[in-house]
UniProtKB/TrEMBL annotation:
<keyword id="KW-0732">Signal</keyword>
<protein>
    <submittedName>
        <fullName>Uncharacterized protein</fullName>
    </submittedName>
</protein>
<feature type="signal peptide">
    <location>
        <begin position="1"/>
        <end position="22"/>
    </location>
</feature>
<dbReference type="InterPro" id="IPR049848">
    <property type="entry name" value="TapY2-like"/>
</dbReference>
């Protein structure tokens, strides 16, 4: 009987640990309104961990990305705003740019 209780406790901790690990690794899709070096503004799409969404501005600033219509990578000068893939931006200019962006 004692072994059964120990085994059930061990199994419940293993299941809980797996659930916590799965929640940490959950990926969300974000879209960010960014300004490239040179002044061009685009919408950049990013896959990130759920809890990294707020830090995405710091992570993307200075990063080189591939831009549609250009063979060279271009550096992100400034990230203006990031939001959920299906959400809307606070700035109207970003929403207009998002509507014109091909997915």
């Amino acid at each position: 009987m004692k072994n059964y209780i120990k085994f059930s406790l061990l199994l419940s901790f293993a299941i809980l640990g797996g659930a916590v690990q799965a929640a940490k690794a959950e990926i969300s899709e974000l879209k960010c309104h960014v300004e490239l070096l040179g002044g061009e503004e685009i919408i950049h799409f990013v896959n990130a961990k759920k809890n990294d969404g707020q830090n995405m501005i710091n992570k993307l600033t200075g990063k080189s990305i591939t831009v549609i219509g250009s063979r060279k990578k271009q550096k992100i000068y400034r990230v203006k705003e990031c939001t959920d893939l299906h959400g809307s931006f606070k700035a109207s200019q970003a929403n207009q740019l998002d509507a014109a962006t091909v997915r």
